[in-house]
Amino acid sequence: MRPRTFCDGCQSPGGPAAADDHRVPDRAAVRLRQESTRNLLDDWKRLRDLERELVIRALREAGGTQARAAARLGLTPRQFAYKMKKYGIIKEFRIEG
Fold first, then answer.
1. How many structural domains compose the chain?
2. Which of 16, 25, 62, 89 could form a disulfide with 68 if both were Cys (CB 3.0 to 4.6 A apart)?
3. What is d(CA 27, CA 84) in angstroms, rounded to the nearest whole number?
């Protein structure tokens, strides 16, 4: 059986709290936590990509009119403008003459 390892604050298993609460996590637990964090970051990236695509699609379907695109997504024009800025979407201006 492996000897118990305790955190810095506990010198012995007979401390104020239960010994199991103060164990140093083993390598497998640390690896699992790192993998979970990586998966979570990947999910956030996919969510950002999806939101950006929805903003672009709504803008195209609204013919470039931000207010209509915002309404299609259930956002205020101000919220929509924020998302455009957040994702680096620049509205094209056309000069007809």
1. 1
2. 62
3. 43
Is 30 a domain residue?
Answer: yes
pLDDT in tens, 46-76: 999 999 999 999 999 999 899 999 999 999 9
pTM above 0.70, yes or no: no
Domain membership flag for residue 9: no
Does 10 map to a domain?
Answer: no
Tokens 């994702």 belong to which residue? 87
DSSP state string for 52-72: HHHHHHHHHHTTT-HHHHHHH
Alpha carbon separation from 68 to 5, 11, 16, 58, 81 (Å, rounded): 61, 65, 62, 8, 12
54 part of a folded domain: yes
